[in-house]
Amino acid sequence: MATALPTPTTFSPDAPSLSSILPETTPGVGAAGTSPGPSAAGPAKQAVVLDVRNLKTYFYTYDGVVKALDGVSFKIRRGETVGMVGETGCGKSVTAFSVTRLISDPPGRIVGGTILYRGANVLRGIDLEAKFKPMKGSNRVKVRRSFRRVKANQERMMAVRGGGIGMIFQEPTSAMNPIFSVSNQLGEALLLHRGDEIIDAMLRATPHAPERRAVFEELVEAVRSGQPTETVRAIAKKVGDVLHSPSMATQAFYTTREAIASGRDPLPVLERNLRRLRLGRVQRSYLIQQRRLIALQNELKVSYMQEMRDGTFDHGERRSIRRRRLATRYRGGWLQIRGIRRHARRPLDEETFWRSVGLLEGIAIANPVQVARSYPHELSGGMIQRVMIAMALSANPDILLADEPTTALDVTIQAQILELMRDLKERVGTATLFITHDLAVIAEVAERVCVMYAGQVVETAPVRDLFRQPLHPYSQGLLASIPRVDQPDKQLSSIKGSVPNLITPPTGCRFHPRCAYAMPICREQRPPTTVEGVEHTVACFLYKGQVAVE
Amino acid sequence: MKDGTSATILAARNLRKYFPIRGGLLSSHLGDVRAVDGVSFDIREGETVGLVGESGCGKTTVGRLLLRLIEPTSGHSFYRPPPETEERLNTLYDTLRPFGGGDNGGEEPPLTDAARKALEEIDAIADQYSLYRRSLRKMRPLRGKLQIVFQDPFSSLSPRQLIRDILAEPLAIHHVGSRSERYRRAEELVKDVGLNPDHLWRFPHEFSGGQRQRIGVARALALAPEFIVLDEPTSALDVSVQAQVLNLLRVLQAERGLAYLFISHHLSVVRAMSQRVLVMYLGKVVEQARTDELFTRPLHPYTQALLSAIPIPDPELKRERILLKGDVPSPAAPPSGCRFHTRCPAVMPVCSRVEPPFLEVRRDHFVACHLYPEAVPPRGAAVPPSDGQASPAGGASAEGPLVASH
Amino acid sequence: MESTLTATTEETTATTPGRGRRPNPHVAQFLRTFYYLRRNGLAMFGLGVIIALILIALYALTLPIPTQSLAFYCSTNGASTCVPGTPICTYPQGVTAPGPNCYQTPVAGGVSFFPSIIPPTFDLSHFSGGPLPLGSLTIDPSHNAFFNLYDGMLRGSDWSLIISLSIVLTGAAIGAIVGAVAGTFGGLIDEVLMRLVDIFLSIPAILFVIVIIAVLQVSPVFGTFDARIGLLVIGFVVVWWPFYARIVRGQVLVVREQKYVEAARACGAGRGRIILRHILPNSVYPVFIQVSLDVGTIPLFVGTLVFLGFAVIPTSVGSGIFPEWGSITAVAVTPLIGLLTTCQFGQCIIPWWQFFFPGFALFMFAISVNFLSDGLRDALDPRLRR
Lengths: 550, 406, 386
Known about the structure:
The structure holds three protein chains of three kinds. Chain A is an alpha/beta fold. Chain A has helices at residues 18-21, 92-99, 147-157, 182-204, 212-224, 229-243, 246-261, 266-273, 281-310, 315-331, 338-362, 368-373, 381-394, 411-428, 439-445, 463-468, 473-481, 520-524; strands at 48-61, 64-77, 81-85, 108-117, 120-121, 130-134, 141-145, 165-168, 399-403, 431-436, 448-453, 456-462, 529-533, 536-539, 546-547. The two termini of chain A are 43 Å apart. In chain A, 46% of the residues are buried. The two termini of chain B are 15 Å apart. In chain B, helix 6 packs across helix 7 (209-221). In chain B, helix 8 (239-256) links the parallel strand 6 (227-231) and strand 7. Residues 102-106 and 381-406 of chain B have low confidence and may be disordered. In chain C, a hairpin with a 2-residue loop joins strand 1 and strand 2 (111-112). Residues 1-21, 66-74, 89-146 and 313-321 of chain C have low confidence and may be disordered. In chain C, helix 2 crosses helix 4. Chain C has a single domain (41-118, 130-386), classed as MetI-like fold (Orthogonal Bundle). In chain C, 38% of the residues are buried. Classes of the chains: A alpha/beta, B alpha/beta, C mainly alpha.
């Protein structure tokens, strides 16, 4: 598996996505660029994709207000991998969920700060969603929520989620819906974010191209004569080009191999495959209707993004979009009659099936057709996590939020997944926020690291600097307490005390009760974030550098 | 008393545990999940043995078998056999080696008379010393000596009991002391693990994971055990808390001379804690050595892949990673021959046909791999059953090891 | 930063407000649940109603049992007072009072019946057992017994609570034991017991009780009043226990796999100890919820039964009267049919209060139990985990 991975059919920097429709905040960068290697000299001057400033997320529980995040700030640039490290309860997962506004409301709420995704304010409208009233005699707060506004804001977030910010979660075995097959779920994701491209390809396909005979025979010959996989793939790609359908390339590749392996004649099989490209009138109208709906949805997303950026939006435009959407649905209503719908949808389903097989190829799964057909409970955790990564990346997002993706997996599977993520990063160049509690994994994947403690970022540094010279006492403590395979005699020191209660956190610096270097000022004031080196910031009174400017 | 002077607490030989798979209309027996398939090792006083492997390899089952929390399908576990008996057992098992240990029936060449007598003698010794032959009544006093600490700090303590009750319960079960004496002992235990006596009056859900784990350790200590199975004790804990718990365990071991079986899939932690390590894969032990030896000179390809997969917290260290292809096969249908051959980067044709024997390749370093065929088989360690081809095609000849005298 | 083993870890995540010397933690736990419950307005309302009901029931226990029937009354007070068309002016216990305590006995179609026609007032002056104007005389024509409505409602609270509690608790106990046994032992025992549960579940509840009562009520064994009540209870218990068995078994299966059970085994605990100390206490939580739900449902069933005519009231004269809410309602509604057919519009007053109040009482009882159990479930479940 460490050998060359197959050429991606669906992951490519040039694949259009919603985010590429939107203008940049900082000039100078095109589509998803390449990532700088870990040895980049000096700070990368790429555009900032995610800018989180002073984020505050509170949870209003019966026992009081849990101040889960209390002023978290960090930036992610295009193509870079930022690691977020901290122990349980420090708020790293909450950060990820806050960025995509997936915090359960109630009991949680984002109460302050800014989140700018490519210049667009993700938290727009959040101040209007709720009113707070402190209750006497306890540390509780009464929250009155306007659910109408909450719902409206959630609708706006669909412009950002998936296509702009993708996410993969911690427990792979419970991340997929058990009643739908893998190809079904991958297809759903594909249609949602790249449906226009897919349907366009289907409508443009030329199943009757006369040159196909020759290419088919070439393919069959290549497989029969046992040519190396790369060659066969190249020929299959030619098939796809001839027929103007990239998914046909995948289908031809696998069906030919399967036919020859089971001793049947592959040529009629290939001809039969073409049936799905020959669209009847009903099917064509269905596809056109779906295409129109997707286009309208995209228009809506653009409008939402614009609203988040400028604060303005055109009521009339939105109304017109919605009206057109309703009209399209109404006019296409006859397609929803069950029997007709099933017939009309079949080519689309098959297309998405083969596209999902292509996706699975892209993440180096050995037998993608079988995996695509199977259900989540038939797959191992590592496999599901790979599928989830494929799903997240299929939308070609700018940022991938990975919330402890390998914590639940075995060491060897973890190694496979990390290798995969590294490879994808080089190929596709998506920026990643990698959240974990395992410092060793951070050392492998991240370029920059944020260390979190009790809802605050205590240190941010390039990964080498952090390991070589950790500044904050908490980072030092963490590094001193992990056992290392290559240093068997290392004394495991631990940090005394335990994680504080976030309802009544310590005053001043939240780490001071456990800090060996605590000074009186630490109890009184919260330390400002100061710059101590190239891209290296700390929040500690031990250091007297220049206060970091937001 | 093979090396050094510590006595053997438990000598496990040829432990097997198969879980039957039932299915179909009449719940017929479809097959077996071979969770543990022929595992043998010794636990000595004061020593920490590490048991590593990935999920599904059977290490948790081994821990439970050693404590007789589940009954083995076959195999013995001898409790504190005197040194002479141990020697005798080793000799007997040696004679049984070409017959596949004689314990799993039907797949090896028919037993000779000598082999049959050896089996009978082992049986007799087992009647006296084997853990599994004891009546449940005679097991009870042993329960205190052989204890376990679980992985999940959240479900290992009964949510409706106060801590003092949880800690006093082992004593109550064995009718040790009066009620107030037991509570006093609970107080001592709580202090031993570094918690406040005030904590006795609380419920488990009021504590953090690390503290709960300490309470679990305190409970295990209640009856003054000599051996504790630590089943992934720190896997659910944060790093800094993990260090606290590990240090606690080390201190306790130094103070009380406890023996540990440290089961984990975190190799760095295992290296820090153990003196000897066993590596398991799909129910079998594939490598066994002293810790330093295993980590510096791993022989089995699986061990090598495992070690190379561990992420190291040093971003400057560049390593060549051995990546295994595919996923772990299901223990219900293990691959033929060497179970690792489907994923092994060094696979040879013989690997899919013949199961490799467990041999001592270097001093006190045992491997089961066809890459190391010429070696002296270990004394008394069990040999995995050969699958039909009793005379291994490309490996250790049956004659050689027996002829070489010890 | 070396680790220290002495007591450094004071910071627990405990939020229990337990201050002072050793407060009993179990009590603290209970109080905490109560604090959570207070947030739920409906549950508090339900709790209030139930407490009030319990108090009323306790008071009702102190009331003497009226023992006289109309026939007896008539016989002791002279036949002239019981002729239809003449007023009846006495409460059965012989208290005479003028005014509102005399009731006309109308005649319609030659059928003599004695519906009450005086609407309720709220004069509570005759509190000590005399005729109270809140109700008026309610007469049960089929059995020649009558009692004051207010009185009947008071005693009805008594009966409703006793019957529903005994049914539910017995059913829960039996079901819990069966479920626990099936769950802990598994295998064949589990299969057999669960099939037994299935058999009993397939019996339609009301029909079964009807059949039992109908068949057995003629038997002399069940002649006495208490025996009749017992029959009713037994009938319901037989149909009700399987629900609990199912619930408990499910929970036991979960608890059985928990690590603390295994830890107890590792310490050498015998099976009995494990079941009693570990499995059962952790498995009863869903039973508790179901019990609180059923306590509200059973009186409805009993009322239905009586309404359908399966009155448990024995035919022998002189035995105690059974003023259970359901039966009062039933008894009050039955003559309604006759009234409606024979009365001209505006001629008769339909004594709506006779069936409204007991029915309303039943409704309040059931719904407040429901609110309370909902609130309890919310208060207990997630918070207990923290």
